[in-house]
């Protein structure tokens, strides 16, 4: 098992006193499991990973490496790696290990000194026995494996894993109805399975089936969670919009994106990462429809939000650069290579590169934009002055790289 460094601040909550260090592992395990669950719910990825690793270590020492508790910790760790850290291979490794332990030897009932609420997954009925937990974690392991395979493009393996997850959930639900939709083992897990199938079918280009799975997931989310927890609806609406667009229903796609944007603003705020991601998604669709002005407007909004989200923006900025290159090519064909319209787009492209600290690429695009503005509007034009200021900033940064200066920020003005 991987060694996970203890995150800053973890010791205050997980090793609170010399008494804990002297306690047996089976006594420490319930509280560590509960802390891991709470950190996972709060989406504290690094700390949650640390606590699930610690839980696995305690379970192994207390009960051995073929016990249910040890398997369960691996599967929860896999889910955390996938949902909160986006680390596919780590998620796959731990999900497979946990699944194999569960399949190799059915677990005995949880030991009496581990409380039911700590041993069983959140949202499971409090009177569940060990077989309920076994089916839950087998289902979860297969679901995580299927999601990873989908992301890796291993679609046949993904379909097989997700069918196993569905089978494990359905088989148990027939004899042990639970609060989930249709008597599923767990509401959240049922939601994850439906969403995972939707993404898989989208990659398989089975768009009608993908729509059904995403619509099912939306129904589950809206019926099972409180209104204040409807933030997850944003992602589902975005996925459903993309499926509609790829199946040729452009009007529905834009309507769904508008609904997703309204939900994101209400749930996360106008300047949130979720709103920025929706802007990039909408820009990609408008680009395919050749609505270049809309593309630029959406990307400007996204980049202004991401300027304060450095660690979140990399993928979207790469997509923005790719889309803006298409805009530039189209404008050259329509307005001419030296036009003011092309210069405007080149300036925006340069600012994206600059916010990413790609100095040479930024210099190239900003210089081209300045030269075009000079030729089209004259050397006294305000855009020429602004671009010269930006280029001077780049030059001063490059000539004194050893001096630490504030990172460049820009709000692109229309």
Strand runs, count: 0
Structural class: mainly alpha
- Gyration radius (Cα, Å) is 26 Å
> Treating each run of at least 4 consecutive H or I residues as one helix, how many helices?
19
Q: Name the average pLDDT.
A: 78
Helix residue percentage:
over 70%
What does it look like?
The protein is elongated. The protein is 73% helix and 0% strand. The protein has helices at residues 11-14, 18-22, 25-41, 45-63, 68-85, 88-104, 116-119, 130-152, 155-175, 187-203, 207-224, 231-246, 250-268, 273-288, 292-306, 314-335, 340-355, 359-377, 382-399. It is built from 19 helices and no strands. By secondary structure, it is mainly alpha-helical.
Key phrases:
mainly alpha, 19 helices, 0% strand
How would you summarize the topology of this molecule?
Layout: H1 11-14, H2 18-22, H3 25-41, H4 45-63, H5 68-85, H6 88-104, H7 116-119, H8 130-152, H9 155-175, H10 187-203, H11 207-224, H12 231-246, H13 250-268, H14 273-288, H15 292-306, H16 314-335, H17 340-355, H18 359-377, H19 382-399
Helix pairs in contact: 3-4, 4-5, 5-6, 5-8, 6-8, 8-9, 8-10, 9-10, 10-11, 11-12, 12-13, 12-14, 13-14, 14-15, 14-16, 15-16, 16-17, 17-18, 18-19
């Amino acid at each position: 098992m991987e060694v996970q460094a203890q995150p800053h601040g973890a010791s205050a909550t997980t090793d609170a006193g010399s008494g804990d260090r002297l306690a047996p592992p089976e006594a420490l395990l319930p509280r560590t499991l509960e802390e891991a669950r709470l950190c996972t719910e709060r989406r504290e990825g690094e700390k949650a990973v640390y606590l699930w690793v610690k839980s696995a270590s305690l379970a192994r020492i207390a009960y051995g490496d073929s016990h249910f508790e040890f398997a369960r910790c691996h599967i929860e760790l896999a889910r955390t790696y996938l949902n909160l850290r986006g680390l596919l291979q780590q998620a796959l490794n731990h999900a497979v290990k946990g699944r194999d332990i569960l399949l190799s030897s059915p677990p005995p009932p949880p030991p009496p000194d581990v409380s039911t609420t700590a041993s069983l997954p959140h949202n499971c009925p409090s009177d569940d026995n060990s077989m309920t937990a076994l089916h839950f974690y087998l289902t979860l392991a297969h679901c995580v494996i299927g999601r990873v395979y989908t992301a890796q493009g291993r679609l046949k393996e993904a379909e097989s894993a997700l069918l196993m997850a569905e089978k494990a959930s359905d088989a148990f639900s027939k004899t042990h109805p639970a609060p989930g939709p249709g008597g599923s083992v767990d509401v959240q897990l049922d939601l994850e399975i439906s969403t995972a199938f939707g993404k898989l079918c989208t990659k398989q280009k089975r768009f009608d089936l993908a729509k059904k799975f995403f619509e099912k997931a939306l129904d589950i989310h809206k019926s099972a969670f409180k209104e204040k927890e409807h933030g997850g609806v944003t992602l589902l609406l975005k996925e459903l919009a993309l499926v509609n667009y790829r199946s040729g229903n452009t009007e529905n796609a834009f309507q769904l994106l508008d609904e997703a944007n309204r939900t994101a603003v209400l749930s996360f705020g106008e300047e949130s990462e979720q709103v920025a991601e929706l802007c990039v998604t909408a820009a990609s669709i408008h680009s395919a429809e050749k609505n270049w002005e809309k593309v630029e407007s959406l990307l400007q909004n996204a980049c202004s939000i991401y300027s304060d989200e450095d660690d979140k923006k990399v993928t979207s900025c790469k997509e923005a650069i790719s889309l803006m290159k298409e805009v530039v090519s189209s404008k050259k064909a329509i307005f001419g290579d030296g036009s003011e319209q092309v210069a405007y787009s080149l300036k925006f492209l340069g600012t994206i590169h600059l916010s990413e600290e790609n100095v040479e690429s930024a210099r190239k695009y900003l210089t081209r934009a300045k030269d075009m503005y000079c030729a089209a509007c004259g050397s006294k034009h305000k855009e020429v002055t602004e671009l010269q200021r930006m280029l001077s900033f780049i030059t001063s940064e490059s000539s004194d790289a050893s001096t630490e200066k504030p990172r460049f920020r820009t709000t692109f003005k229309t």
